[in-house]
Amino acid sequence: MRTIFFTTLFALTGIWMSSFAQLPPVFGSEYHGITQKDEMTRTYISPIRVMWTSDTTGELIKNTDVLLKMGDSQSSMSRQTQFCSIKSTEIDTSSILLDYGKEIHGSLQLVLGGSSRREPSLVRIRFGESVGEANSQTYNSDWLMGFSTDDHAKRDIIMEIPRTGLIEIGNTGFRFVRIDLLQANTLINLKEARAVLRYRDIPYLGSFKSSSSRLDSIWLTGAYTTHLNMQEYLWDGIKRDRLVWLGDFHPELATITKVFGYNEVVPKSLDLACEQYPLPNWMNGMTSYSFWYLIIQYEWYMQNADIAFLKKHRTYILGLIDQISSQINEDGTETMGKFRFLDWPSTPNKEGVEAGFRALLVWALKDAKKLSEILEDKESVTKCLTAIEKLNRNVMNHNNLKQAAALMAVAGILDPVKACNDVVAVDGAARFSTFYGLYMLDALSMAGMHEKALHIIDAYWGGMLDMGATTFWEDFNIDWMENSARLDELTPEGMNDIHGSFGAYCYPSYRHSLCHGWSSGVTAWLTENVLGIQIMEPGCKTLKIEPHLGSLKWVEGSFPTPLGVVKVKHTKLANGKIESQIDAPKGIKIL
């Protein structure tokens, strides 16, 4: 099925490819090779503009408009065929920079139509999530400011290309591609330079439209960010962090359930995580990420009521509860290792991280208790309740860390109004983070501060859009915007490069991922709080619909459930009251 979303999102013409369900007959029944159908769809995207060339004379690089046309992946030796010619001299290496309009995951396909050499020609291909990255050098020995790396996915490749033919290069996340012809005194004829988008072709069952087009763009960008990371497994990043990270998984799960409903990538990825980190290991080697596993299992069950999958993970869930509860002491202290991770921006605030870590554990144990009740294991229910009681004997101070205060509110150990007035709402979007921004927004909604949350969303996630984002990033600080050029511009002298000039920890400079699934939680929040749709009974059999429009005049959208798609529209009347129209499938109770 072709997804209408990509037609509207890209506004580009592509060729949609289908794959065969079985091998051609020539393989025969006696063929014993292991085969597997590619789960992903491939779509070709022509660049929308030539951003820059190294040629200031108009003599070395000609007919660049050819590359913007629809291609057919077919080389040609006909004189009727138009080519973009790229020529180098003894002293000049010719280069061209292409923009594909949106961040994508995939590769580059070059179609060549002859050259001045009998042999293949040598080129350098650089992929970039930003203009700056596509023009940057690569340095893999260390994570240094000013350099990009390709330790997760190759983004800087020197290779030979055929004289007349086709070749595909790379597998990474990118929006821009720079091509350098390296050999002197060489001419190549380039017929096509199309990006190959590789993605799950699935419908966007959830939707969000309102009187604010900016808010609509934020919702859709968050949805698309997670969509790109739904590869064979649920990744956190399409350039870097192409792994199943259980903490990062949670905001993505929240987005998936609001946009796509059920998708096999979730149970498949949870299965893989348990295989890779069998007990007594912690998920991804981090205790806090095992806490997230329990929260994910509960929220996935509430969406789908898939008792068979929950029972499949019964041994792991109950074993993890045993492992956690056995390491909590009577006085509320615990012995679950020294490495306490929430998210990277919170790391310097050790006291705050400690408080947030313990709050996250309380949240996880509360969900683990519910899972134990569903699995009818009374002993585990008791273990969870006892563990929570012990932890609450030793509640720590949030130390003005927004991440910690938000988790404490969500976990029910700090009054949400106090948490927001004292910490979370202070200075608006300042000190927000892409991963934990979801829980900060949740704390604001629990405190009844929905309008404040919408202002922060406009400034924070909207700020990324203002900087040229088409997907949301691994990290963002609104202070970075000052005197910074957009990611889709060549950075003028005297200005910051919004991509290359910032970043820290494991993501300095261009190593920073500009498509990170953990940043998409804003999409889920908008569905839950502005559309007002919340799950009250497993399988979405009972939904509570309580919209919070703030200054919006109207909002409408849809929400996928196992019983079908729920559609709502809320309109603010002249007297300030909200009129709601709700269309729910049979079998769903609306509160």
From TrEMBL:
Residues 205-394 form the Alpha-L-rhamnosidase six-hairpin glycosidase domain. It holds the Pfam family Bac_rhamnosid_C. The keyword Signal applies. InterPro entries: 6-hairpin_glycosidase_sf, 6hp_glycosidase-like_sf, Bac_rhamnosid6H, Bac_rhamnosid_C. Residues 532-587 form the Alpha-L-rhamnosidase C-terminal domain. Keywords: Signal. Coiled coil: none annotated. The keyword Signal applies. Residues 1-21 form the signal peptide. It comes from the Bacteria. Gene3D superfamilies: 1.50.10.10, Maltose phosphorylase, domain 3. This is Alpha-L-rhamnosidase C-terminal domain-containing protein.
